[in-house]
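Standup notes
- HV: blocked on the assembly model, inputs below
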Amino acid sequence: MTGTLRRPHVIALVVAGVLFVAAAVFMLASISDRDSAHDDVVQGRQQLAAQKLATQDAQDQLVAARSAAAATTSAFTQVVALERQLADTMSRGVDADRVAQSLGASPNPDVGSYNAAINQANALANQYNATIDQIRRLIQAIPKHPVGAGG
Amino acid sequence: MTITEARPDEPAAPPPTNSHGALVAVIAVVVMLVAALVFVVIGAGARSDASSDRDRADALAARRATLVHQQARVDRQRVALRKLTDAVPSKVGALEAALTDVVAAQNRFIEVVNRASSLYANGDHAGAASALQGDGATTIGQLSERNQKVQQALQQAQAALDALKAAK
């Protein structure tokens, strides 16, 4: 058939063919690009949803950690206050023991003063035994789960 | 072989396929151009959609990055808080151990005192004094040393508690 066509017809056909092919390639590339971008959006939505969950989970864990911190603070504030009291009483007890030891170690001890020092040491020992019992009760009442709970 | 002479009085008829072929060619050109135009329109639309989707994907990625940062910040806070929370029972435990050591030393001193009292009651005044000079001095030294450790442990427990209170 081309043999019977004029040159302008042939040129027009070739130009139209080239434009047709180029347009088809452009369209296919654009559709592929659009599909790829759409996949990116879908993937982005999925990743965002997963990240929202992970961030919420982290927030929940922080809330749990704050709750554990509050429980620990509340429980141990009393314990430490009592232990401070105990340490003070023990210090006084050690001083009384030191006095008793010093008096008793003398070759001619003042028995009255020695006994008074021993009595004071005993009275302080009774005080800190009572405080130790109080501390034990407090520690037993501390719930175990807040400390070290969670991640 | 016969040579046929041309007849100049009859004009040569155009090939019958020429006008038909031209028509087909024109139609093909028109169809291809129209199709190309349609392809370009579709392609441009797809490109525009792709551009919008890419903007959306970028926005999603930016929001995700913000959340990742937020999660990392929250995780750091939680780990720090957990560390401070766990430090309190640990320091208080160390304080209790130090207090227990003082009690043990105190009990040893009481044993020495009781032994000295027995010796004194049995008339061995020198033995009583000797017990308090020897074992008594040793246990008093231990008591003083352990009492110092209690004070240190108490300060550390209080510091751990204060740090936790400040972090909340």
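- HV (later): unblocked. The two ends of chain B are 118 Å apart (CA to CA). Chain B has a mean pLDDT of 88.
- Next: hand off to the docking folks.
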